[in-house]
Amino acid sequence: MKPEVGVCVSANPFKPGDIVRLKSGGPLMTVTTIVGWDTNCTWFPVTALVAPFELYSFPGATTFPFQALELATKPNYAS
User: What digits encode the pLDDT tens for the residues 16-26?
Assistant: First the structure.
């Protein structure tokens, strides 16, 4: 049986809005939805943050098993 969208598996430690990163590295991503074991994430490519002409580039989005992710600290852009 497939889990319904928005239904969290009790073992999945993440919730929508969490900032995560792949355990192997990569960009900071925002958890958008949880579907069973899968964690749907969205991020903006690094070039969108450093190249003014690309500020409106499309975000990336994909699904990862929660075991491949770790909670990340929010970046502090004020400093």
Answer: 999 999 999 98
Do 23 and 68 touch, CB atoms closer than 8 A? Answer: yes
Predicted TM-score of the model (pTM) = 0.71
Q: Which alpha helices (DSSP H) does 17-79 contain, by range?
A: 46-50
State the chain's mean pLDDT as an integer: 79
Q: Indicate the burial class of 72 (C-beta count within 10 angstroms; 0-12, 13-18, 19 or more).
A: middle
Cα separation of 34 and 46, whole Å? 24
User: What is the phi/psi pair of residue 16, to 5°?
Assistant: -55, 135
The ranges of the chain with pLDDT < 50 are 1
Listed residue (45, 15, 44) closest to 31, CA to CA: 15
Smallest CA-to-CA distance from 70 within 23, 25, 34, 8 is with 23
